[in-house]
Amino acid sequence: TPTFSPQSVSVIFVLGGPGAGKGTQCANLVRDYGFKHLSAGDLLREEQDRPDSEFGNMIKDYIANGKIVPMEVTVQLLENAMTDYIKKREEGEKGARFLIDGFPRKMDQALKFEEAVCPSQFTLFFDCPEDVMQERLINRGKTSGRTDDNAESITKRFKTFVELSMPVVDHFEKEGKVVKVAATKGPEEIYEEVKRRMGERGFEMVS
Known about the structure:
By secondary structure, the protein is an alpha/beta fold. It is 54% helix and 14% strand. α2 crosses α4 and α6 (130-144) crosses α7 (151-174). The model has no long low-confidence stretch (mean pLDDT 89).
């Protein structure tokens, strides 16, 4: 049985290729809907820098070699972060809302998380063609300082996304658990669409 019940804990996965604008939209949802934002990538980076981490060196090796960290590790880190957050809440589990960003990147992660941690409500998928993402990221690269915001890296990241993450989107789509938002417009227009779709799924604003 999963650690958390979907009756009390709401999990939404957020997927989209690089430069689809996930970060911006997650910040909006945290502000207006009371979500706790968890990024699998951030948790892995924090864990590899934690002095007494049992996973630290292994994560470093995987990231250095550009490989996806074993899913057991990522799922465990997400579960730990959810548990920590729930412990700090006065209401405990009841009504806790999590946005899990950039996860699940692969099919095995999706199945493992839903079976062991908590079934998701749905996946919020920001659908954006490669040329639009490319242009956004190259512009972002001028100021972001991120080493992977260059044309060659972007093409690779997009290819990885299509090969590994799109099957996850397709899988959840068959279960009626995907909310697909066209991410080609400006961030404000995209957010209007996100709010409308959240309402359709029964999520009200809290602030």
